[in-house]
Amino acid sequence: MARSDYWVCDLCREKAFYDADLLYEGDWRLNRNGNPLPVGAGDMVCICVECAKTHKVLAMKKDE
Fold first, then answer.
1. Taking the CA of residue 18 as centre, how many other CA atoms within 13 Å lie in the half-sphere pointing to its CB?
2. Helical H runs in 4-48?
3. How far apart are the C-alpha atoms of 23 and 38, rounded to whole Å?
4. Distance from the CA of 19 to the CA of which of 27, 28, 39, 55 falls in 20 to 30 A?
5. In whole angstroms, how far apart are CA 13 and each of 9, 25, 37, 42, 46?
6. Which CA distances in Å does 22 have to 5, 6, 17, 26, 34?
7. Counting Cβ atoms within 10 Å, is residue 53 exposed (0-12), middle (13-18) or buried (19+)?
8. Residue 53 and residue 59: Cα distance in Å, rounded?
9. What is d(CA 42, CA 44) in angstroms, rounded to the nearest whole number?
10. pLDDT digits (tens, 9 = 90+) for 2-29
11. Per-residue b or e along 23-52, where b marks 16 or more CB atoms closer than 10 Å to that residue's CB
């Protein structure tokens, strides 16, 4: 499958999952990494299985 059909890992930029299976209904925009997001989503991060062995994803409150 074409690399453009995959959501890539935000760390190593390798294929993480096949995002053509996701249903993007309605309006969407690109996030900071160029991945499509539904307009209602603030941001998303994805790490592949290999990077998940040494890293984790956290949601933290922004400094004010």
1. 4
2. none
3. 10
4. 55
5. 5, 25, 17, 21, 10
6. 10, 10, 10, 13, 16
7. exposed
8. 18
9. 7
10. 666 788 899 999 988 887 766 666 677 7
11. eeeeeeeeeeeebebeeeeeeeebbbeebe
Residue 15's identity, in one-letter code, is: K
Read off the pTM. 0.66
Measured in degrees and rounded to the nearest 5, phi and psi for residue 36 equal -75, 140
Q: What is the pLDDT of residues 35-46, one digit of tens each?
A: 777 777 777 888
Determine the residue type at 38: P
Distance of CA 2 to the CA centre of its chain: 17
